From TrEMBL:
Organism: Actinotignum schaalii FB123-CNA-2
Pfam family, one: SpoU_methylase
Domain RNA 2-O ribose methyltransferase substrate binding: 30-103
Taxonomic path: Bacteria, Bacillati, Actinomycetota, Actinomycetes, Actinomycetales
GO biological process: methylation; RNA processing
Name of protein: RNA 2-O ribose methyltransferase substrate binding domain-containing protein
Compositional bias annotation for Polar residues: 1-12
CDD domains (alphabetical): SpoU-like_rRNA-MTase (cd18095)
UniProt cross-references to PANTHER family, sorted A to Z: RRNA METHYLTRANSFERASE 3, RRNA METHYLTRANSFERASE 3, MITOCHONDRIAL
UniProt KW Transferase keyword: yes
Keyword Methyltransferase in record: yes
Disordered: annotated span: 1-21
Superkingdom of this protein's organism: Bacteria
GO function terms (MF aspect): RNA binding; RNA methyltransferase activity
Length: 280
């Protein structure tokens, strides 16, 4: 589609999508920044309503123009002042998208090997980083429990660095009933806690012994399908009624008191992925 000037009405309506009420009303949101928009165009172009960009952004991001053309979406050049008024975090590129329907839980986890689930995560930066960590590890899905921050807020999307467009992310999950769904799918349900029944290093060693020595695993078997549950940044699982198979602690070898929830997600998902993808 040809590039067309953006009307004042278009820009005003797009800018209003910074407000949660407007996102809920129109079922639309903003994708900000060249990286996230390029991942959107490459993987979920069907969601795009409009792309706004400055000429400078096309020069500094040479793949962007080609992706816009290939996707065949409406696109509108803006000057620097118009872009600044639309978004302070855009770095020259913003897309307006339709918020997709949430996939059904049971089919999503049916053949999954690695899943991340969260309970009451309040910081959008953490949720975005968890989604990105899941993408790095090749997780089959991310499940956000009820009470978590709004999934399709611009900051979550931006913090995911576009990973939100790479894998299924489900929100408003009833964590208290998740165990039954996972059990029917043959997936172990493990919670990451500061003082777990098991130590992650022990489970890694056990998985290695099972693979190379033929010994039965000691404790939860990380070579099998796993769903890791991560709790609230400050209160953990204090307000969560989840029936997990076991609790697991991440060992800390330095002087840090703890690791934050996004770091825990990265450690758990990547460690499990390396075990599950071990060469035969």
């Amino acid at each position: 589609m040809k590039s067309t000037p953006a009307s004042h009405t278009q820009l005003t309506r797009a800018a209003r999508l910074h407000r949660p009420q407007q996102r809920e009303r129109f079922r639309q949101t903003l994708v900000e920044g060249p990286g996230a928009v390029q991942e959107l165009l490459a993987h979920r172009a069907n969601l795009v309503r409009d792309v706004y960009y400055t000429k400078a952004s096309l020069i500094s991001n040479p793949d962007l123009g080609g992706l816009i053309k290939e996707a065949g979406v409406y696109h509108h050049p803006l000057n620097a002042d118009e872009m600044q008024a639309l978004s302070e975090d855009a770095r020259g590129v913003v897309a307006v998208i339709d918020i997709p329907e949430t996939p059904a839980l049971t089919p999503t986890v049916k053949n999954a090997k690695l899943v991340l689930a969260t309970a009451n995560i309040q910081d959008p930066g953490n949720v975005g980083a968890i989604i990105r960590a899941a993408d790095v590890a090749g997780c089959d899905a991310v499940l956000l429990g009820r009470g978590s921050v709004e999934l399709w807020s611009p900051k979550v999307i931006r913090s995911s660095a576009g990973s939100i467009f790479h894998l299924p992310v489900l929100d408003s999950i009833n964590v208290g009933k998740l165990d039954g769904v996972l059990e029917r799918a043959g997936i172990s349900f493990l919670a990451a806690t500061g003082e777990g029944e098991w130590d992650l290093a022990t489970l890694v060693a056990s998985a290695n012994d099972a693979a190379y020595l033929g010994q039965p695993p000691l404790g939860p078997d990380l070579t099998r399908p796993v769903c890791w549950l991560l709790g609230n940044e400050a209160h953990g699982f204090a307000d969560v009624d989840a029936n997990v198979d076991a609790t697991v602690a991440i060992p800390i070898y330095g002087k840090a008191e703890s690791c934050n929830v996004a770091m825990a997600a990265a450690i758990l998902s990547s460690t499990t992925a390396m075990i599950q993808h071990r060469p035969e």
